[in-house]
User: Fold this.
Amino acid sequence: MRADATRKREQVVEAAVDELAELAVAARKGDSVRLSLDQIAARAGVGVATLYRHFPTREALLEAVYHQDLTRLCDAAPGLAAEGSADERLLTWMHRYLDFVDSKRAMGVSLRSMVASGAVTQSDTRARLTEAAAYFLSAGTKDGVLRADVPPEDVVAAMAGAVIAADPQQQREQTQRLLKLLVDGLRVR
Assistant:
């Protein structure tokens, strides 16, 4: 791919990321949301034809967004874990995970289609999140802040459980409280 084509593709993905983040905020406020590819193209500063040249379907674009967001979330873990107290950094990362989940809710039916087609798999997502969570647990046990008897798989399962279990009327706030409880339970007493 030529450099300018690569740049335009990246612009479209970034615009879609930003659009989904805004839609997630609107949805939390109770507003009805709908992802517009025309709006994404305009936000990226490209024509709709350029968007479709890179992403022939809505699902193709959203798949790229999903994988880019997951990569950013997981790739941030090593550096974030090394920045300070592992328990506090873990909670910060969990809030980023919550942002990731919120933006995926705005994908709606398209995300379900990607899962059904195998383009996005729960096992891959969970494995990547588990690898990322391990950085915080390792740093925390090394510093004596976090318990050493909790595997990262359990932390990821509890994070996902917090998202699922939260009351839809107070989804974000309750999930944040549940994540804080999770980190509190991981701390050495």
Q: What stands out?
A: The radius of gyration is 18 Å. The chain has a mean pLDDT of 92. The chain is about 75% helix and 0% strand. Residues 86 and 139 are 6 Å apart (CA to CA).
